[in-house]
Write a structure and sequence with these properties.
It is built from 13 helices and no strands. Among the domains are: about 1-70, no CATH class; about 265-325, no CATH class; about 325-365, no CATH class. The chain has helices at about 20-25, 40, 55-60, 105-110, 120-125, 155-160, 175, 190-195, 240-245, 260, 290-295, 310, 325-330. By secondary structure, the chain is an all-alpha fold. The radius of gyration is 52 Å and the shape is rod-shaped.
Length: about 375
């Protein structure tokens, strides 16, 4: 410091100095520097009171928690009022801090210090947070914002060609957009079947146009116009539950003939064939009507009118009944002649009473 002690000391008190750091040096003391002791910067011994470096880093290198990564210009962020509070305004950069970026620590983004210029794309920092694995691109801001990463601003109805309606509005994205390696970017014309194939109880037998019967409001079918099918529902068929006839999800497997459903109701055991509709109708199963004279080649006359159907129709048939109209086919057991007069019973007998003989038959009793 030289031999001019009077520059700092006086005769009144050697320990008290008249040295004015603000006026006598090029480094005015401000804020917390004012309270610092001289030897905190001017180390004892030698010429440490002269020509000390005036940059922050020379004194505060030991306080640098960044370990030099952010450079040596401490004053760009720190000030003499409080070392812990930084005064750097990030908004003056090309990347203003908004939302949750504001409280983020510098080193969470500036991993390698300020010397490295960071890219400002979301994906550059948040690639590890991307559950889509870049399948939706790297423009995260299309859906996400700085306020909350989990809350998205993506509007499916506005931003895509597939409008979400009904229960689709409550569906989570990943329910349709499966995680990798499955494709997450669905085609704009995606059909119901592309997502709901696993839910198809019909196993493809009803086609892939689910919307013909189902809606987005509920997967369960409330109304279906069966009359547009090849089997219109009439009479007592109308209130019958679907599952009574459609035993499986393959609806087209249900047969349209009566006997397929009503076999258990057949008290005739096929003796009158399996064409139930020949006698019965859909108004009421118990109400039946069959005109034997008009619908067959064998008119019921005489005692035949009172005979029960099953007395003649003894053999079971599938489909239409085939029955011989010859007398002998039914009355062979009644033939007291043992077949000696042949099988044409009607040559002698009449249908009113079997034991009556025709007058002109040549026989008499």
């Amino acid at each position: 410091m030289g031999e001019k002690c009077a520059d700092c000391h006086n005769e009144r008190s050697w320990s008290k100095t008249d040295f004015n750091h603000d006026q006598d040096t090029k480094f005015p003391l401000k804020d917390k520097h004012k309270a610092a002791k001289c030897d905190a910067c001017h180390k004892a011994g030698g010429k440490t009171y002269e020509k000390l470096p005036m940059d922050c880093y020379s004194c505060h290198k030991k306080d640098d928690k960044h370990l030099g990564k952010f450079g040596q210009k401490c004053e760009e962020c720190h000030n003499a009022q409080d070392w812990k509070k930084d005064s750097f305004n990030h908004d003056r950069t090309k990347f203003p801090l908004k939302g949750k970026h504001k409280p983020a620590k510098c080193e969470s983004c500036h991993i390698n210090g300020l010397s490295e210029k960071l890219k400002t794309g979301c994906n550059d920092c948040h690639q590890k947070d991307d559950p889509h694995k870049s399948v939706f691109g790297i423009n995260c801001q299309k859906c996400h914002n700085e306020a909350d990463w989990k809350t998205t601003t993506f509007n499916h109805n506005r931003d895509t060609k597939y409008l979400l309606k009904g229960k689709h509005t409550q569906t989570k994205c990943e329910s349709c957009h499966k995680p990798p390696p499955a494709p997450q970017k669905l085609q704009p014309d995606s059909t119901c079947y592309s997502c709901h194939q696993a839910d198809d109880v019909h196993k493809g037998t009803e086609g892939k146009q689910c919307e013909k019967c189902h809606t987005e409001s509920t997967w369960k079918v409330k109304e279906f116009d069966h009359n547009k099918t090849k089997f219109p529902l009439m009479g007592k068929h109308a209130p019958v539950e679907c599952k009574k006839c459609h035993l499986t999800g393959k609806f087209k497997d249900a047969k349209s003939d009566c006997y397929s459903c009503h076999q258990k109701d057949d008290q005739h055991k096929k003796h009158l064939g399996t064409l139930c509709e020949d006698c019965h109708n859909v108004r009421d199963w118990a109400i039946w009507d069959y005109n034997h004279d008009k619908r067959t080649k064998f008119k019921l006359e005489g005692s035949h009118k009172a005979v029960a159907c099953l007395n003649c129709h003894l053999d079971p048939f599938v489909g239409k009944v085939k029955q011989s109209s010859a007398c002998y086919s039914c009355h062979a057991n009644d033939d007291v002649h043992g077949g000696s007069f042949g099988p044409q019973c009607d040559r002698c007998h009449v249908d009113t009473k079997f034991n009556e003989i025709k007058v002109n038959s040549g026989f008499s009793r």
